[in-house]
Design a protein that fits this description.
With 917 residues, the protein is mostly beta strands. Helices cover 9% and strands 46% of the residues.
Length: 917
């Protein structure tokens, strides 16, 4: 029978390059006559301990020493080396301008972090407070890890209903003695984005001799801010010439304001749609990033043009972040059969970022306006150019107020206490966990109250048509919002108990059985201050306060039946019940493994899944954000209309939760083989297929606008998308301006995805210059289709997420590793490759091609002094810039996609550790 230890070696060397697997225990296992004397292990995806731990589901095992040789220093970096991790995760740079600032998430199979279950030592972690579902990888104590197991298969029948895309289980050291001090610094060649980390790990007590062990690890680090002005590919969004000129990203909100006409209806300013131009800066102001509207044509017959603002250089690419994480574990061996344990995990991050200065006048209900009685009203200009003397709105960029700057403080911890061992012939494991995630967001600069700004305008104390200085600037600062605006708390309590044992013998060996129960409560409190909840924040979002609580109970069982030599069947089933109207679900899983020889094995599994809507999906209220720039196809049919109507403007997007959201259901299939003709070569290939019915999510404001434009352009004015478009009233024909787009949360689509994972490892014969190893790990996505529940249309998913603005699904990802060892020296060369993709942008008839992204990383290490490990390396050796793309809404950066590429460029690092024993 093929032993899992050899397969683990294959995977570990693909990722670790130089790691030398300990094959002696494998040989011993094959030679041992009395298999009952061998240690039984529990692997991710199963609750049954076994000797041959290679199951019917594909599991990748990554050992800490192998990750060190890749230069990986965090759980988030680790996932960048796992080819099955795809769109739907979340990186540090994606958090700029987001309510997930500081969050890092994983997304196996591109199914989002909400469908990827993250465990620490086999148990759940709390979701991030502001979305209540996804686990923040910052909570993982990376330096304390022993290994990581990635189950690339659905596991709802074993762990719970949300393990649809797979499971990532981070496993820490259990019985460590000694002290390790380590540190690392990363320095970018072009400046910005440097990072520093220091860690202390300790342990004392031997479970076998002393009957106890206490282990702990504390890590502190920081990332410096990286600004867009520090990278050539992101410092401007205006491309006046060349093939990308039509994709330029700019704003009509300028430091010296553009103006447009309107009227007062019911005490509210309603724009009429005609942009006039700029009375305060007829030549615009390049010194303040304000330029002539080079698109031309729209202002024919006027002597002035509107100005545009290049906001790109005012955005952070990577935020400033301070980190602190710790884990402490105490284990007491009461007897040879009973063990008690207690574990505390804590993580704190402080993330600070800035985006461009506050804009006003986005054609929404929160617009500022000016009446003709105002002392700064451009009376002569409007009379001369337009013969107009009515109310006006302002496309104003409040540059004097500074960039919109947020600080997000996140505190997360988990306490886990329990016991494991053997009781009356059964292996048992019982534990109680209490986990919390706390989020506190502060506005520290650049955000303004609409109400207070309007009062200052009405009083003539600030002037949007010139730079405000002195007393005007002091008055402007009184309208700033400088306070904590959002505090969210998520509490998770869980009790889980499970038992397992061998249960008789079949023709192929011992049969195993397991059963268990778990009870879990989740409580979310998400409070916004009055400014945020009411939408009084200009250039911000409207986020209502939310609270909710629910309880779930699950029972599960598992059976392993080796009913013939080399042929093993597994069966698992779980029933989960949720309160609050969600209901219950039964999810079975079947697996089969055939091992006709030690060199070959085949495996397959069939599973079902169920994901309940989150508390925020059900009770989150209505939040308001903004879309990408969009031209109204009704007021500007075919690109022909009045100047104001044909301008691309941001629209309000109202995202509404709903208690009508139902659970989504999933089915999954994996089938693959392991080939290992000798100890120097191994390969695995696995096919996967996943279907999700009634997938929970938003329609997406940009997706609605794109569908609405297609409907209107084809002559359909009341199609499926039009019901989500809100317009003003009382404006006559053909229609009032769009005031908002409603993006409800619901079971909007069905999803199908399939693909292939391939992993290979070859160990070359030893040479005079050392030992070389070659590894290759790849995932190819063959299919990623979605079908909306209305309209019946299918949308190909390569770049599908680009319809909502960011984080594209990548067709293929590969990681190729060449490792070398010679005595105390070692080295690793890694080639990271991602395929190109097509990005369909709202307003552009043909997709934009985003080029492939490839980087080389290199590291050398030295271990010639006992206890000392030194390493130095360079990431992105060739200094490849991210491929050009307009990321669209969902992210603030321009020129590259933060969900696809790293903006830091060539980065050198050095690290060292010393172990005292």
């Amino acid at each position: 029978m093929l032993n899992r230890k050899q397969v683990v070696c294959a995977f570990a060397q693909v990722f670790g390059g130089l790691a030398v697997c300990a094959l002696a225990p494998v040989a011993l296992a094959q030679q041992q006559q009395d298999t009952q004397k061998l240690e039984r292990v529990e692997v991710t995806g199963s609750s049954i301990k076994r000797i041959d731990a290679e199951t019917s589901s594909p599991v990748t095992v990554l050992r800490k020493e192998d990750l060190d040789k890749l230069g990986v220093t965090s759980a988030a970096e680790l996932l960048s080396k796992v080819s099955a991790n795809n769109a739907g995760g979340f990186s540090l740079q994606q958090g700029v301008g987001s309510s997930l600032a500081g969050f890092s998430g994983a997304s196996l199979r591109g199914l989002s972090s909400a469908r990827t279950l993250v465990l620490l030592n086999g148990r759940r972690l709390p979701g991030f407070a502001t979305n209540s579902t996804s686990v923040d990888l910052n909570l993982i104590p990376f330096e304390a890890l022993e290994r990581v197991e990635v189950l690339r298969d659905g596991a709802s029948a074993v762990y719970g209903t949300d393990a649809i895309g797979g499971v990532i289980n981070f496993i820490t050291r259990k019985d460590y003695n000694g002290i390790i001090i380590s540190g690392r610094t990363d320095q970018t060649e072009k400046g910005g984005g440097d990072s520093y980390t220091a860690t202390a790990t300790f342990g004392f007590g031997d479970l076998a001799k002393d009957r106890f062990n206490i282990f702990g690890s504390v890590s502190a680090g920081k990332n410096d801010v990286l600004r867009s002005s520090e990278r050539s590919f992101a410092k401007t969004g205006i491309f006046q010439t060349g093939p990308f000129s039509a994709l330029s990203q700019f704003s009509y909100n300028t430091p010296v304001a553009n103006i447009y006409d309107g009227s007062i209806v019911g005490g509210v300013f309603v724009p009429n749609g005609a942009i006039f131009s700029n009375p305060g800066a007829p030549a615009c102001d390049p010194a303040r990033n304000s330029f002539d509207d080079y698109t031309g044509g729209s202002f024919a017959g006027t002597t002035q043009n509107a100005c545009i603002y290049d906001f790109s250089a005012r955005i952070d690419l990577l935020p400033k972040q301070d980190r602190l994480s710790a884990i402490s574990r105490a284990t007491l061996q009461l007897s040879s059969d009973i063990e008690l344990f207690a574990e505390l995990t804590y993580a704190k991050t402080k993330t600070k970022y800035a985006i461009s200065e506050t804009p006003t006048g986005t054609f929404t209900s929160s617009e500022l306006y000016m009446l003709p009685t105002n002392p700064f009203y451009p009376t002569a200009y409007l009379a001369r150019e337009y013969g107009y003397n009515g109310p006006i709105g302002m496309f104003w960029r409040i540059r004097e107020g500074g960039g919109r700057t947020n600080q997000a403080d996140v505190d997360q911890y988990r306490v886990n206490v329990g016991s494991r061992g053997v009781l009356i012939g059964w292996d048992y494991d019982i534990a109680y966990s209490n986990a919390k995630s706390k989020y506190n967001e502060k506005y520290t600069d650049g955000y303004f109250s609409r109400r207070r700004l309007q009062a200052l305008l009405d009083a003539g104390r600030i002037n949007p048509f010139a730079e405000n200085t002195g007393a005007q600037l002091q008055a402007l600062n009184t309208a700033k919002i400088l306070t904590s605006v959002r505090q969210a708390n998520l509490d998770l309590n869980e009790i889980q108990a499970k038992v397992s044992r061998e249960l008789g013998t079949l023709a192929g060996g011992a049969m195993g059985v397991a059963a268990g129960i778990n009870w879990r409560t989740e409580k979310l409190t998400d409070n916004s201050n009055a400014d945020l909840a009411s939408g009084d924040v200009i250039g911000g979002t409207t986020i209502p306060s939310t609270s909710g609580k629910r309880t779930s109970t699950g029972v599960f069982g598992e059976l392993v039946a080796p009913f013939a030599k080399g042929l093993e069947a597994t069966a698992a089933a779980r029933y989960d019940s949720y309160n609050g109207g969600v209901g219950g679900t039964f999810n079975p899983k079947l697996g089969l493994k055939w091992s006709p020889s030690n060199q070959f094995a085949m495996r397959t599994s069939l599973s079902s899944g169920f994901r309940a809507p989150s508390i925020t999906d059900l009770y989150g209220g209505t939040s308001v954000g903004s879309s990408a720039n969009f031209v109204d196809p009704v007021l500007c049919p075919g690109g022909v209309g009045t100047a104001g109507n044909c301008r691309a403007l941001q629209r309000d997007i109202k995202t509404e939760s709903s208690t009508a959201v139902k659970p989504e259901k999933a089915r999954g299939l994996t089938a693959g083989m392991i080939i290992e003709p000798n100890r120097n070569f191994s390969t695995t290939i696995d096919f996967y297929y996943i279907n999700i019915q009634g997938a929970i999510g938003e329609l997406g404001g940009n997706f609605i606008l794109g569908g609405y434009k297609r409907e209107v352009d084809s002559g359909v004015l009341n199609g499926p998308f039009s019901q989500y478009i809100q317009r003003g009233t009382g404006c006559g024909q053909p229609a009032c301006a769009i005031t908002a787009v409603v993006s409800k949360i619901g079971n909007w689509s069905d999803l199908w995805t399939s693909g292939i994972d391939l992993s290979m490892k070859y160990r070359f014969p030893k040479t005079d210059v050392g030992t070389f190893q070659l590894g290759y790990d790849a995932t190819y996505v063959n299919r990623y289709d979605t079908r909306l529940s209305f309209g019946g249309q299918k949308v190909w998913g390569e770049g599908f997420a680009a319809n909502t603005g960011a984080d594209p699904l990548i067709r293929a990802r590969t990681v190729t590793t060449l490792g070398w060892e010679q005595g105390p020296l070692n080295g690793t060369l890694v080639y990271n490759w991602q395929s190109a993709y097509n990005q369909q942008l709202t307003g552009f008839p043909t997709p934009q091609k985003v080029a492939i992204y490839e980087t080389f990383d290199v590291q050398v290490g030295y271990t010639g002094i006992k206890g000392l490990k030194l390493a130095a390396g360079v990431r992105n050796v060739l200094d490849r810039n991210p491929p050009f793309t307009i990321a669209g809404a969902g992210v603030f950066q321009v020129g590259f996609d933060p969900g696809y590429a790293d903006p830091r460029g060539r980065t050198a690092y050095v690290s060292g550790s010393y172990a005292f024993k």
